[in-house]
């Protein structure tokens, strides 16, 4: 039987902006083979495709995330895109929150705000200052004049490099082959301030590169803001921030830091509704 398949542009209110995510709603109570999910994600060619299992007893949707190359533990834009698709296509009641459970067992809650945006609750990824991994700055091909003295921090998944201004972030042009050799999920380049595509002043600007995960540059990376939010909240002295991810597609996120949790707020647009006709093997 064909499976519902959607493409949602996340962290934007306009088609062809933000970060596109594939969303596949599965039948049955168990996961299909990982090889099949990986093949679907490779066929979709989006930075992430989310696979969803319907709620059983606890009311939570199970969710897994695959890039075209590997499975990843957490993905913000595919979570937002999944919640939007479930509400938009009638799989869930629009006036009720959606709870996802990741493959690692982490609980993620999505709910609609009064103005129609989607708010997500994620675990924070507190940063720790560190020396840059060997070869990182060379792979980013940074102008040394733009790097702060205390430039580098690391979270659970990613390493962060702080520059001195948003314009310096926008012109970074990495050597992706060299960057893919750095042993992290992804590399964040960020700076204070900036301007969103709709001309609002941003608290910080970032870009996210993940060639080791099969993604040279991710258009908008929700999960990376679990690191960026605490990082900039501490340095700017505020716990509610407006973030601009300055990829060519671009995206805007509201970030709220509350202890060990980070709230991410954004909008989404369904751009494709279809069916997947290459069925998975029997679930295991």
UniProtKB/TrEMBL annotation:
Gene Ontology CC annotation, any one: cytoplasm
Gene Ontology molecular function: isomerase activity
Pfam families assigned to the protein according to its UniProt record, in alphabetical order: PhzC-PhzF
UniProt feature coiled coil, ranges: none
Gene3D superfamilies listed in its UniProt record: Diaminopimelate Epimerase, Chain A, domain 1
Family assignment from sequence similarity: Belongs to the PhzF family.
The protein's name: PhzF family phenazine biosynthesis protein
Gene source species: Algisphaera agarilytica
């Amino acid at each position: 039987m064909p499976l519902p398949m959607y493409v949602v542009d996340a962290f934007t209110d306009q088609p062809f902006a933000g970060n596109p995510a594939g969303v596949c709603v599965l039948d049955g109570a168990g996961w299909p083979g990982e090889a099949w999910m990986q093949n679907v994600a490779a066929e979709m060619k989006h930075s992430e495709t989310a696979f969803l299992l319907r709620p059983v007893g606890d009311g939570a949707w199970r969710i897994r995330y695959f890039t075209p190359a590997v499975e990843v533990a957490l993905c913000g834009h595919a979570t937002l895109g999944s919640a939007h698709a479930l509400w938009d296509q009638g799989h869930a009641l629009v006036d009720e929150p959606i709870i996802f459970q990741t493959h690692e067992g982490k609980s993620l809650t999505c709910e609609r705000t009064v103005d129609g945006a989607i708010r997500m609750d994620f675990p924070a990824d507190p940063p720790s200052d560190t020396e840059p991994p060997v070869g990182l700055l060379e792979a980013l091909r940074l102008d040394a004049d733009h790097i702060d003295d205390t430039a580098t921090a690391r979270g659970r998944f990613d390493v962060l490099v702080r520059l001195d201004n948003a314009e310096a972030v926008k012109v970074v042009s990495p050597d992706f082959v060299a960057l893919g050799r750095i042993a992290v999920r992804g590399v964040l380049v960020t700076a204070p301030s900036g301007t969103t595509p709709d001309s609002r002043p941003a608290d910080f600007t970032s870009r996210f590169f993940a060639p080791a995960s099969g993604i040279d540059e991710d258009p908008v990376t929700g999960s990376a803001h679990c690191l960026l939010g605490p990082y900039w909240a501490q340095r700017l002295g505020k716990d509610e921030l407006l973030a601009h991810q300055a990829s060519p597609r671009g995206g805007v996120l509201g970030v709220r830091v509350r202890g060990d949790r980070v709230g991410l707020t954004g909008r989404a647009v369904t751009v494709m509704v279809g069916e997947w006709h290459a069925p998975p093997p029997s679930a295991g």
